[in-house]
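Researcher: Sequence recovery benchmark, item below. Answer with residues only.
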């Protein structure tokens, strides 16, 4: 397995292009199941999760054509045209679904288009139990009949889906997306209450509207969908990745550097930049990007609690913990979304971080320096927090199991190298002799 070696201590300086958002791209690709016309998506990131979903969609009958790397905005980003003229199947098999939890998103669209679906229960990052009960309850409310057999969800809507009021007892990004897509083709009006408000849902809703869906309340926690008999194709550009933006913002801060994050959108990262500013980091929105710098000043300890959007995102919790490991004083980081999302703590501790976990709260007592060490990536965001810590630590950090990073960070190593980082990927072949 590949590893990443980082020799820390270089303040990062320069420009980093922010890629299209993985978490927006995945549901947008799935939306292609809702129409028999071409859906052209631009600014897609080149990531393992995108390829995994492309394989699943292909197996369901979606024809996918890549139109080249550069899109009209001139920066690197894939353009895919997805056309599902006719479904060739309605089963999402275990082998494909286990690699990525977001595969569950095909359930609602398949039900809406074909009246049936058979989807394996999902896998994904090991950050808690991550059930799918909210997806299932929402689709049942729209008239789907569901059974769980042999690890598969067997779903049928013999008389089609019917609009209804779906009130989510808990905010869920995926369940909101699944039910929203299904509702666009349901008969009559669907109201989604306590819907997630993450910007990626806004991206999905805007694309669905471009495809002819009728959705009110985009950006709020109450979405009202008037079902239509059919959707058409569309062209849509995926939003910039707010987690990648936040991650590189921390890279600038943690190394005492100065980075301009090109194509970044300041709005969706507001909760993250607010924490950084309170920590003493300078963040300025500039035309076409976001500039983040820390000039010799210390890092003030800031308490952080993860919340659904617009609160502080759980996907940035590990990265901000790496930053607070260097803070002046103690910061309490509370994780309210996932129950097992502190797997980076023992790894950061191996580098000398002083962190105590009690239940869902981690108390991070800042130390003047971390020392490079061999560490192991455990999930997508946890692994990038180890890279960030390594960038600021003294000596060498060797991160193993980097396939987690490939799921969510496009060209992470080259992007950091271009800003002066001493970081390299060591291919698995090199490991044999090591
Ligand atoms: C999405 C993101 C992920 C992010 C998460 C929270 C994608 C592809 N992934 O994941 O990066 O960390 O939102 O912002 O967009 N839950 C249930 N029952 C369900 C569904 C969820 O109890 O049926 C719980 C989960 O266990 C978790 C919470 O609800 O505790 C939020 O999960 P959810 O918003 O659904 O996360 P995902 O959509 O899986």
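Model:
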């Amino acid at each position: 397995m590949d590893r990443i070696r980082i020799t820390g201590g270089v303040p990062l300086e320069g420009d980093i292009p922010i890629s299209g958002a993985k978490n927006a791209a995945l549901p947008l690709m799935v939306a292609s199941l809702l129409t028999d016309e071409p859906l052209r998506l631009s600014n897609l990131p080149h990531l393992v999760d995108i390829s995994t979903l492309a394989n699943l969609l292909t197996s369901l009958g979606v024809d996918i054509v890549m139109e080249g790397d550069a899109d009209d905005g001139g920066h690197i980003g894939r353009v895919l045209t997805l056309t599902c003229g006719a479904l060739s199947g309605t089963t999402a098999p275990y082998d494909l679904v286990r690699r990525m939890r977001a595969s569950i998103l095909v359930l609602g669209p398949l039900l809406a288009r074909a009246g049936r679906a058979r989807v394996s229960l999902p896998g994904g990052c090991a950050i808690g139990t991550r059930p799918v009960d909210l997806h299932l309850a929402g689709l049942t409310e729209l008239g789907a009949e569901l059974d769980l057999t042999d690890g598969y969800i067997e779903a049928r809507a013999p008389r089609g889906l019917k609009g209804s009021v779906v009130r989510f007892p808990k905010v869920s990004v995926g369940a909101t997306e699944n039910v929203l897509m299904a509702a666009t083709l349901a008969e009559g009006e669907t109201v989604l209450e306590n819907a997630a408000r993450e910007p990626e849902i806004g991206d999905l809703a805007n694309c669905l509207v471009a495809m002819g869906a009728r959705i009110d309340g985009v950006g709020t926690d109450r979405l009202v969908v008037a079902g239509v008999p059919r959707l058409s194709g569309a062209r849509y550009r995926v939003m910039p990745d707010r987690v990648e933006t936040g991650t590189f913002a921390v890279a600038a801060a943690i190394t005492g550097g100065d980075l301009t994050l090109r194509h970044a959108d300041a709005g969706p990262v507001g909760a993250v930049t607010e924490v950084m500013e309170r920590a003493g980091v300078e963040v300025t929105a500039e035309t076409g990007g976001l500039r983040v710098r820390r000039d010799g000043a210390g890092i003030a300890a800031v308490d952080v609690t993860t919340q659904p959007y617009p609160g502080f995102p759980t996907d940035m919790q590990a990265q901000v913990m790496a930053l607070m490991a260097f803070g002046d004083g103690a910061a309490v980081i509370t994780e309210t979304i996932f129950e097992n999302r502190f797997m980076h703590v023992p790894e950061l501790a191996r580098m000398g971080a002083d962190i105590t976990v009690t239940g869902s709260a981690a108390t991070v007592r800042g130390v003047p320096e971390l020392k490079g060490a061999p560490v192991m990536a455990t999930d997508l965001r946890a692994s990038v927090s180890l890279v960030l810590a390594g960038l600021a630590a003294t000596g060498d950090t060797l991160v193993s199991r980097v396939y987690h990073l490939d799921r969510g960070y496009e060209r992470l190593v080259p992007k950091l190298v271009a800003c002066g980082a001493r970081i390299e990927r060591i291919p698995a072949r090199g490991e044999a002799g090591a």
